Amino acid sequence: MLSTPLRDQNVIQQLPHLTVDSEWLDDLHLRIDDLCTIAGEYLEPAQVERLRDACYFATEAHAGIYRKSGEPYIFHPLAVARILANVRFDHETLQAALLHDVIEDTHYSKEQLSSRFGPEVAGLVDGVSKLTQIQFNSKREAQAENFRKMFLAMANDLRVIMIKLADRLHNMRTLGAMRPESRRRIARETLEIYAPIAGRLGMNHLRQELENLGFSHLYPMRFRVLQDTVRKMSGNRREIVGQLETRIQTRLDDEGIKARVVGRGKHLWGIYQKMRTKHLPFRDVHDVYAVRIIVDAVDTCYRALGAMHNLYKPFMGRFKDYIAIPKANGYQSLHTVLFGPNGVPIEVQIRTEEMHIMAEVGVAAHWRYKSGSDSQGSHAQQRAREWLQKLLDMQRRAGNPVEFLESVKIDLFPDEIYVFTPRGEIIELPRGATAVDFAYAIHSDVGNTCVGAKVDRRLVPLRTPLNNGQTVEVVITPTARPNPAWLNFVVTAKARASIRHYLKHLQREEAILLGKRLLEKALAGRIGGLSELPVEAVRALIQELKLVSFDDLLADIGLGNRVAALIAKQLLPDEEDEVTTSPDASAQPLLIKGTEGTVVSFGKCCRPLPGDPIIGYLNAGRGIVIHRDNCKNVTSYKKSPEKWIEVEWEQNITSDFSVELRLDVINKRGVLATIAAAISATDTNIETINTSERDGNTTIVYLLLNVRDRAHLARVMRRLRTLPEALRLARRNN
């Protein structure tokens, strides 16, 4: 139940547990009044009172907390709410904006917010809050999982991302107080994630501000140079555009077309991106300024286009009709490039008033209108929800949060092309998309079973990039399956996620079949088949290995994570093998993958190290003996292959291993001390040193050392080879 709204101007001073700072108290009152005044232009009085109550609650919750800039923290949520109020969002969104950091940064819970402000507001705040109670392996994984949580919340309520975008916008406006490395990290994240999301949702005004702010913090020198260059050139260009506006307005009036003509400057990040991607100097970027024509109806757009093409010659191939075929975010407009005065190329955009609002605020247009009169906003919402549904499909197919985030990044940078199905249906794809991307855009099953494609009735390879206006037909076969090589050329996130998802399941099925065959071979001659294995022994082994099912065990065998022969011995131990399942063995750090509960020893003949290619020998008395694959004893493999098994090292081994070196040196006084000092400098322990005089001038030194792995051994050998006395150095094998 909502408490009685607090109206008194001095109410903040009366709040419990709140230390009032007179220096910012008046400013706080002004900011709260300003927000409520803006909201009062379109909200009901009772809704404004709820909003004011949320202001006081947030003030108390963040009492005593300050931002890096030194200002009270409450100023931040007030600024976020004001950004959303200017777009005329509903009162629940504004309340959630005021409270968006309460769950994350204060002692208040979602349940407490729900009881005071209602479940809708609490749900929005929870959707914006980061995951702080879960431990992650890395900052990258934590970031990816937080983004995944945000996207899932977006799918339920689009207002979540609106609050998050407004939050990020104000953070970017006040980013100067952060350390340089933090500024660069946040700016890069903004340019890679948040600005593209704003663009994807059609909120171009917000996107441009995020991009320019991100640009200024990520590349401050480039930003200042480009800003100064545009400022110096703006006088001349503004004069040209001014003349152009006058001539266009006159021509439209002569044609009887009622229109509003507005000059438009291209934002700095857009100019920089064009210079970088097209390798252009600034003087060759001609559309720094453009003209926008806003009319009252769709048919008037095309009449205005005809008038413009009669007034100035158009550039061939530079006309785009986004009214007939809107962009993926719902954006609609006519774009054309004209030879303006003095031959200067000028971009002209023609759109209706509704299209203009949609282009500026995108899906937020839904909240600018009263219910029932927002056809444009509803259309944008529909397109946004279709996109979010695609994200949910990717999320289900993604193996982990990082993979999901990478797929989202791919999907956030589309430069659309439009192709047709044989029935004339339009399919939107990013530029560079192939026939495989087209197949998955139709349906995942079509993509999984496609074997070929026809473009404009001509058979083409599946990796062929598609172009605007082409008609594409996919050839499918029910027995076909995705090719892993497709991942090298597909560009859509849906295709990439679907292929990975299918291959993972396919790999597991094939691994189970292979593991079954390997285990049956290892058990040959002892039982008739896997069905005759003791149930209790199978259950105990699965439990010991912390697996879920017998299929998991077979998959591990098939993938090479466990050794079939060892699993067979654990399931059906012989009396002579009891030593190999010593309980002490399982307590030791695992060095060889898949040898849990088995005694492992290392051949003294070749002394293998982590990183060496190895092979294992099954010995009834010693368990499994590990040899280097080039060991002389391995030559017996051909004579008794059933006793040799493929093995591999575990990762992150911290044990020490013995290795034997032979070093030929010049026989002189103090040479052993020199050798010992060189070895000690590499943090290596010497077990034994033996010498053998070869002749009067040369001595052979046999060294038994303790090293961690091949990399450690390589450092030791490099150090020994630098000794002036060293003649020859080799690792002993037998």
Describe the protein's architecture and organization.
- The chain has 734 residues and is of the alpha+beta class.
- It has five domains: 7-129, Hypothetical protein af1432 (Orthogonal Bundle), CATH 1.10.3210.10; 137-218 and 373-406, no CATH class; 224-368, Beta Polymerase, domain 2, CATH 3.30.460.10; 573-654, no CATH class; 657-731, ACT domain (Alpha-Beta Plaits, 2-Layer Sandwich).
- It has a five-stranded mixed β-sheet. It has a four-stranded mixed β-sheet with strand order 11-13-12-14, with no helix packed on it.
- Helix 8 (119-128) packs across helix 10 (159-173), helix 11 (180-200) packs antiparallel against helix 12 (204-218) and helix 17 (375-397) packs antiparallel against helix 18 (401-411).
- It is elongated, with a radius of gyration of 35 Å.
- The protein starts with 10 loop residues before the first helix and ends with a strand.
- Mean pLDDT is 77; it is low at 1-9, 16-20, 131-138, 368-377 and 575-589.
